[in-house]
Each structure stands twice: as structure tokens, then as C-alpha cells.
Write a structure and sequence with these properties.
The protein is mainly beta. The protein has helices spanning about 95-100, 105-110, 135-140, 170-175, and strands spanning about 85, 125, 195-200, 210, 220, 225-230, 240-245, 250-260, 265, 270-280, 285-290, 295. Strands 3, 4, 5, 6, 7, 8, 9, 10, 11 and 12 form a 10-stranded antiparallel beta sheet that branches. Strands 1-2 form a two-stranded antiparallel sheet. It is globular, with a radius of gyration of 19 Å. The relative contact order is 0.21. InterPro entries: Cell_wall_metabolism_enzyme (IPR050570), Dup_hybrid_motif (IPR011055), LysM (IPR018392), LysM_dom_sf (IPR036779), M23ase_b-sheet_dom (IPR016047). Belongs to the E.coli NlpD/Haemophilus LppB family. Keywords: Lipoprotein.
Length: about 300
């Protein structure tokens, strides 16, 4: 008798000591820092990628539901997608996909048996309409984007003749990995909370920083912007807020005790947006992330000198 082997991929977890994946907020940052046929219910195939950080977790499935196999990226990723489904592209987040198809992140996560962190992976096929419902053709044709992806470039017909050759422009992957110091000097963001940094960016895969404080102390907006996510749809982050800043940046604030803003609100830099809560480990802290065009960046070089 042949034995069936189920392979689980590591994704986001529920332990804050690991690392806080997508919305891109979001659920959010939101982003995220959380503006996106009737077929048998089968979990979507999983391919390794990254989004909002959280510690590794073994994905579980509901009783009687067989996980879909892990598949490599390749020609299959460009195969036609049936109505009601969407194939994850680079830069996508659960929040962004849900927003595109006008669904709740928690529903999309449930339909696809995603991990609690809400991680989605490049090439993964997701159900974006309720089981048994058909999706409008126009919706399935859209490309789900996280809140802060850059504005698409103009087509060749729209570009002026004096534009530089395309070869002079960095590839998307290079642009995402480029340092942000040139466009966001130190002091661009203010500290979102008073306290010591107890976990730095990059530690065990951490995509942000953890600031220790006291339960109920103010959590402030690091910069002026618009709230694009405020909720607790992703349990790994607790109550979380994602704020969008212009066309490039978003910030995410997780583990809050109480949210003081709602989606669509405009906030000023330094405005109190939440009360600090505790992470899964029970320590009062704020998990803070900064995203540039969907990619996580170290918040420390962007924060003012007066920390905590």
C-alpha cells in the first residue's frame, strides 16, 4: 500500500518571539505597516515566500480536508485560473487580495485553510468567492495588490520620447531590495511607543521590532497617513492597525489592547491610535513594522534619535 505523505510549509506563526505575513496588514501593516464555481473545497497549493513576519507554524487543516500538495513555481503558475479563484503574485498580501475581491480577510483565510498568520505564497491558488458562488468575470481579471505597491508605469505609448531606456531602470526585485535611506532619511518616522527594543529587525526572521512597555500605554502613528486596516482578523497579530503613508510606505502596529481608530480614518504623526496590549508570550509590547512597496525594512534607521 502506498503511503500518502503530506508536506507542510512553514509560514507565519502565532508566537511573537518568532517573527510577524501578508495584507500585505493585514491582515494589513494590513502591508498590512495593514485601500483589494462550484468546486470541492480543497486548500490551495503552498509555495515558499514571505509577507508580514511571524514565527514558523505547522499549518493545520480541518477534519476530512486533505491539504493540497506543495508545488514548485514554474509554467503552472501562469496556467488559466477558474472564476472564483486567484493565483498569488509577488507582493500580494491576504489583505490586498481580500480588498480587491471585496471579501473579508478572515473569510478568504477560512475558505483556503490558511495559517492563523494569514500568510500567502507566490503561485498559491486561492478561493476568493464563497464556496458555491460564482465570481464576476471582471473581478477575476484583476490583479490583487497590497495597499502600497507603486503606481504602475505608463505604457510605451503614453511615455514621452525623452524617457530613459528601460534598461536604465532597476528590476522590480532590485527596487524592492534597495536601501530606503536615500528616500526616507533618519527621523522620517517618530517612535510609536516609549520603551526598550527587546527584539530587533532580522532576529530569527523578525520583520519589524518589538518595543516593550506597559499595558494601556499610548501607541502613536509613526507618520501622518490613512488607516487602511484596523481589526483582529489575524490572531497571530492580535488587534492590529495598518497606516498607509503616501505611495510607498505603510506601518503596522500589532498586539494592541484597544484600537482607537477605524479603517478610513486619517491620522496625524504622533496621534494616539491604540492602547498597548500583550503579545502571545504575555509580555506587554508593541510589534512595529515598516513596509516600503510591500517589502519589510528595518524601522530603526528611519526613526528619530529619541527612542523609547
Amino acid at each position: 500500500m502506498r503511503k500518502r505523505v503530506v508536506v507542510h510549509k512553514e509560514g507565519f506563526g502565532t508566537n511573537p518571539r518568532g517573527a510577524i505575513a501578508s495584507v500585505a496588514i493585514v491582515a494589513a501593516m494590513a502591508a498590512g505597516l495593514a485601500g483589494c464555481t462550484s468546486t470541492p473545497r480543497t486548500p490551495a497549493p503552498i509555495v515558499e515566500n514571505s509577507a508580514l513576519s511571524a514565527p514558523p507554524v505547522v499549518q493545520s487543516t480541518s477534519p476530512g480536508v486533505t491539504p493540497a500538495p506543495v508545488v514548485p513555481l514554474g509554467p503552472a503558475s501562469s496556467a488559466p485560473v477558474e472564476p472564483g479563484f486567484y493565483r498569488v503574485k509577488p507582493g500580494d498580501t491576504l489583505y490586498g487580495i481580500s480588498r480587491t475581491f471585496k471579501q473579508k480577510p478572515a473569510d478568504v483565510s477560512k475558505w483556503n485553510t490558511l495559517p492563523e498568520s494569514g500568510q500567502v505564497n507566490v503561485g498559491q491558488l486561492l478561493r476568493v468567492t464563497p464556496p458555491g458562488a460564482s465570481a464576476p468575470a471582471s473581478a477575476t481579471a484583476k490583479s490583487a495588490q497590497p495597499p502600497l505597491l507603486p503606481t504602475p508605469e505608463k505604457s510605451a505609448a503614453q511615455k514621452p520620447a525623452v524617457d530613459k531606456p528601460a534598461a536604465d531602470k532597476p528590476a522590480p526585485s532590485e527596487e524592492r531590495q534597495a536601501t530606503v535611506a536615500a528616500t526616507a532619511p533618519k527621523g522620517t518616522f517618530v517612535w510609536p511607543a516609549h520603551g526598550d527594543v527587546v527584539r530587533k529587525f532580522g532576529a530569527s526572521g523578525n520583520k519589524g521590532i518589538d518595543i516593550e512597555g506597559k499595558v494601556g500605554q499610548p501607541v502613536k502613528a509613526a507618520a501622518a497617513g490613512k488607516v487602511v486596516y484596523a481589526g483582529s482578523g489575524l490572531r497571530a497579530y492580535g488587534r492590529m492597525i495598518i497606516v498607509k503613508h503616501g505611495n510607498d510606505y505603510l506601518t503596522a502596529y500589532a498586539y494592541n489592547e484597544k484600537l482607537l481608530v477605524k479603517e478610513g480614518d486619517t491620522v496625524k504623526q504622533g496621534a494616539t491610535i491604540a492602547d498597548m496590549g500583550t503579545g502571545p508570550g504575555g509580555t506587554p509590547a508593541l510589534h512595529f513594522e515598516v513596509r516600503k512597496s510591500g517589502a519589510a525594512v528595518d524601522p530603526m534607521p528611519l526613526l528619530g534619535a529619541a527612542g523609547g
